[in-house]
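Researcher: Here's a chain I'd like modeled. Treat it as a single chain, no partners, no ligands.
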Amino acid sequence: QVHLVESGGDVAQPGGSLRLSCAASGFTFRSYTMRWYRQAPGKEREFVARISNIGGRTNYADCVKGRFTITRDDAKNTVYLQMNSLKPEDTAVYYCNAYIGMTYYWGQGTQVTVSS
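Model: Modeled as a single isolated chain. Structure tokens:
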């Protein structure tokens, strides 16, 4: 059974940093691309970042490029999202995602609030 558990969400000041983690289980983690999405109040869920299973190639949404970094540790079955230079508009619930066997799997999400 696929299980994704996000953690690390918190309240941060504008310009601050947070590091999110997503612990995965129930599948061969190293074989799959992993993604982060986010959903702000009243808005649709949006793509944030992706890291491939082979070579660790990364892609980012334009709104976070240069500020966020996605990494993975296949030995720990964990994907991370380092968020720097946070802005109020980064406030959202952040979700970890895996697409396995034609099914999208999601964690429960972790709340990030950026406010002074």
